[in-house]
Design a protein that fits this description.
117 residues; 36% strand; disordered C terminus
Length: 117
Amino acid sequence: MTATFPEVLVPQAITAGAFDADDADVRNNLGLLGLLDVYSRDGSYRLTVSLEPVDPDRQPSLWALEVEMEVCADGKVARRAGQQLEYSGSTPGSHLRKLLASGELHGYLLQGTAAAA
């Protein structure tokens, strides 16, 4: 499952509208960590996304994006890490919700996949 995760599973589920940003549980931890946790509309998948500064000692503007998707039926988990994005603000979890709602999260995943190829 890990082999198809970045290329197929998450982008396919996100573009198909499987996840509703309004249903996402969002956490903002002192502006140093943002978390988004949401189940797909049909309950088949659980998507967890984290955003944390690449260098927390400096004024954070470059953040590391990590994505984890669980297939609820069998408990298998796929992870995707290594993508970075620019962000300035104190609510990174809320920013993740906006990325999911606008479809931009899918774009970051595609960029990361292209960079890895």
